[in-house]
Write a structure and sequence with these properties.
This protein is an alpha+beta fold and 800 residues long. Helix content is 14%, strand content 33%. The chain is built from 14 helices and 46 strands. The strands form eleven sheets. Strands 1-46-45-42-41-39-40-38-37 form a nine-stranded mixed sheet, with helices on both faces. 49% of the residues are buried. It is globular, with a radius of gyration of 27 Å.
Length: 800
């Protein structure tokens, strides 16, 4: 890894200090080299450094599969794997591809392998890019493709012989050699088909034309005959303003508006289903029962011939969830089964992961995920009447992801944590017979087994691909905090390792100076519930009580954020900067406390109606235990930072525990929920409460979740708090940070405020000013030292 060039501050950020004159530390100031060392191990710099950390197999009709990897220069290669022969072969080297496409005036680096088909004794490789090219492999006879290729913003059919695009708020169907035709009718602004709605929090870049997207929340039936999707109605929502104070090429501020329903608004986003027959053009718009909405993260769960299955939910009290069947030819909707709960209902132990559900065509059966017994387990249900035929898994552990179902041989494959005890966040691989019988362990050895988990599969998404179509093999990525990922092929009958498919290249990570963190088991504030933490230690750590400790927290109830794998620890989603802060001399800790996902239902439901408060109680208890275990930690100097829900949590930590947390950096915080988005599709009322608990009144109007408003605790602030916001952040609107600032002003509390012009919610990953000012803040106020008088290079992917 290169040493960053001398830094320049982007003009688009400024810091406003309200804390008066900073104290000058007596300790030696940090040097530019210290920050450069921290830069080298920052998540943004290491994001592409761990090459080939996982793969996605693309299975062929003959049982082989291909996948893409990066070579040592970062160029894409394709690899063909034959499980039966346990062989692995590179389909082409970049230099070979450059040579064979040169006669067509094409460039290898600009081409992408779009598909591979079995053709006689060879393969047909289709490349998309500046011009479509077809190649016969291994003879490398290439021709310019005569078939039109779907554009990047199109949604191809399963066979690839047609595709969908969005035009004038409607879906259009295109086939090679045929004129495009409108597939849906009646779409209009704010109520279209396949349109990216504003509630996805990307309204500003979409209006600016910076976010071309495939048709949204829509999919094909497996045979390509039907198209089905979710239609969102935002017409009745009020506009929400965002002020861009320094637009490019203008001194006049610009106002952007998006449709947004706030918590408690009478009008919220409404949704419905639709299905269209691509042959006849017949369209069915399907109105949902009053008060019911599509479970957004599930989308269309699956098809069985001309019937499709989806999940709808009612977020009143009690909460209810229904699996419904829709007849594509008529649009008729039928309830298959219903579940109810006073708290959460979801289809995975992580709210937004791919549902652990499979519709089994031709079997009148589904594998269904439920937490009805207090844990996340799999059930076999009959689709014709909703009857539970068998509980497939049971015990004081949770299924994580359904990896696939081998109907022919009668097995369901899944990952799970805590089956044999130990760390419940470390996944093992298992299978269970569909007709009943004991769970069979395939791989559970203390390392984590990824196997194509469904992280981030909102609104449906692709099916898992870890299990081969004929059920004989599993593709598994194995890792731990100290072991770089290695992807192996396993036999599905006993889990034996057939071959190593890929080993991640981590040389650049080590060269950057990155060091693995440690894993710790602790107890929650209740004194008996096990919780887990990941600890990053400074390079010169010693047991002398001299090291400040920083709590790196997210605080949302939907995920866990203490890494258990090498890739997560090297370059995390949220929070980032943990390894960097350790390089600057801090012990940095992430804790998965009660209220987060991935465990039993009661553990998760601790945050229901309470947001991050129970988590913070556990964090304080955990840090005190770590202070006893790591004698180098100085518990008189405890800091905290976080982004988004983590920004809310960081500020709240200083307000609820002012004697414990001394310094906090809160970026893009959701500091009051009444100013956040509402509604049953994605609102705070769905996530935390269902029926809005009005705990205060303002001008005679009930204020929902007022007890969770950070402003109500503004008078408690005693330590140093830096509030950070980006002016175009749709996920956590700037007004929420400024409203907390106003409350702190009223309470005559001192704080700091960092404003980032033209920045959105990604500021914590890509903005150098935020990153370095956050480091400065902890160095000055927690370590008692002065940061270097220097400017560092912008982080990769910054706003420019």
């Amino acid at each position: 890894m290169h040493v960053p060039a001398p830094l320049r501050f982007p003009f688009c950020a400024a810091i406003l200090a309200f804390t008066g004159v900073f104290s000058i530390a007596s300790a030696q100031p940090l040097q530019p080299a210290d920050y450069q060392r921290a830069e080298r191990v920052h998540d943004s710099h290491l994001r592409g450094a761990l090459r080939n950390a996982s793969i996605v197999p693309n299975w062929l009709a003959d049982g082989r599969f291909w996948y893409e990897r990066e070579d040592t220069q970062g160029r894409r290669q394709a690899v063909l794997v034959d499980p039966a022969q346990a062989t692995r072969q590179i389909l082409f080297e970049p230099a070979v591809l450059d040579t064979v496409v040169a006669p067509f005036g094409a460039s290898g680096p600009r081409l992408r392998l779009a598909s591979v088909q079995v053709m006689g004794d060879g393969l047909r490789l289709r490349f998309s890019g500046e011009m479509p090219i077809d190649c016969q492999w291994p003879r490398w006879h290439c021709v310019r493709s005569q078939d039109a290729m779907p554009p990047a913003d199109a949604l191809p059919s399963p066979a690839g012989d047609a595709w969908l695009q969005m035009r004038d708020h409607n879906l259009w169907l295109q086939s090679p050699g045929m004129a495009a035709r409108g597939l849906t009718t009646g779409g209009e602004p704010g109520h279209g088909y396949g349109v990216l709605p504003d509630f996805t929090l990307r309204g500003i870049p979409r209006r600016q034309g910076r976010m071309p997207a495939r048709p949204f929340a829509v999919g094909w039936s497996p045979d390509g005959r039907y198209v089905a999707g979710i239609r969102y109605d935002e017409r009745a929502l009020q506009y929400y303003p965002y002020l861009e104070s320094t637009p490019a090429n203008s001194a006049r501020p610009r106002v952007h508006t998006v449709k947004l329903g706030l918590l408690g608004d009478a009008q919220q986003v409404r949704d419905s289903l639709y299905v269209v027959d691509t042959r006849s053009g017949r369209q069915h718009d399907i109105t949902l029962p009053e008060g019911w909405n599509i479970l957004s993260e599930a989308g269309i769960l699956g098809w069985d011939g001309g019937r499709l299955y989806a999940v709808i939910a009612h977020f009143g009290a009690p909460r209810r969830l229904r699996l419904v069947e829709i007849e594509a030819s008529s649009g008729a909707l039928r309830t298959v089964l219903e579940e109810a709960s006073d708290t959460r209902l979801q289809l995975n132990v992580y709210s937004y992961n791919r549902p652990a559900v499979a519709i089994l065509p031709g079997q009148d059966t589904a594998v269904w995920f439920s937490q009805r017994d207090g844990w996340g387990h799999l059930y076999r249900v009959r689709l014709s009447d909703g009857k539970v035929l068998r509980q497939l898994t049971r015990g004081r552990w949770a299924v994580r992801d359904l990896l696939g179902v081998d109907v022919a041989h009668g097995w369901a494959y899944f990952s799970a944590g805590g089956v044999e005890g130990g760390d419940p966040y470390v996944r093992g691989l298992y299978r269970v017979p569909l007709r009943g019988g004991p769970v069979q362990r395939l791989a559970a050895d203390g390392s984590d087994h990824l196997a194509d988990a469904g992280t981030g599969a909102l609104f449906g998404g692709r099916a898992p691909q870890a299990l081969s179509p004929h059920g004989g093999y599993l593709v598994d990525t194995v890792s731990s905090l100290v072991q770089p990922p290695r992807t192996v092929l396993r036999a599905s009958d006993d889990g034996r390792e057939v071959m190593v498919v890929e080993e991640a290249d981590h040389h650049a990570v080590i060269a950057a100076g990155w060091r693995p963190p440690r894993r710790e088991r602790l107890l929650a504030a209740d004194g008996h519930t096990p919780i887990f933490a990941t600890v990053y230690l400074p390079r010169d750590y010693r047991d002398d009580g001299s090291f400040p400790v920083i709590d790196a927290m997210y605080g949302g109830a939907f995920i866990s954020n203490a890494p258990v794998t090498y890739a997560e620890a090297v370059s995390a989603l949220n929070p980032v900067s943990r390894a960097s802060l350790a390089e600057l001399g801090f012990v940095v800790v992430s804790i998965d406390a009660r209220g987060t996902g991935g465990r039993d239902k009661a553990f998760h439901d601790s945050s229901f109606l309470h947001a991050a408060d129970v988590q913070l109680d556990d964090h304080v208890a955990a840090l005190r235990q770590l202070g006893e275990r790591y004698r180098g930690i100085d518990l008189q100097r405890v800091g905290i930072y976080g982004h988004s829900f983590g920004g809310y949590s960081a500020a709240r930590a200083l307000l609820r525990y002012p004697a414990f947390y001394k310094v906090g950096v809160a970026s893009a915080g959701s500091h009051n929920f009444q100013g956040m988005y509402g509604g049953a599709l994605h609102g705070m009322d769905r996530l935390f409460g269902g029926v809005l608990p009005a705990t205060a009144m303002a001008d005679g109007v009930p204020v929902p979740f007022a007890g969770l408003d950070n402003a109500a605790l503004a008078g408690n602030l005693r330590g140093h708090l830096l509030l950070v916001y980006g002016e175009l952040d749709e996920n956590a609107p700037p007004a929420l940070t400024l409203q907390l600032a106003a409350a702190l002003n009223t309470a005559q509390r001192r704080y700091d405020l960092l404003y980032l012009a033209r920045q959105d919610h990604e500021l914590f990953r890509n903005d150098a000013t935020y990153t370095h000012r956050m480091w400065d803040y902890f160095v000055r106020h927690l370590a008692g030292r002065e940061p270097p008088e220097t400017v560092l290079a912008p982080l990769p992917g910054g706003p420019g």
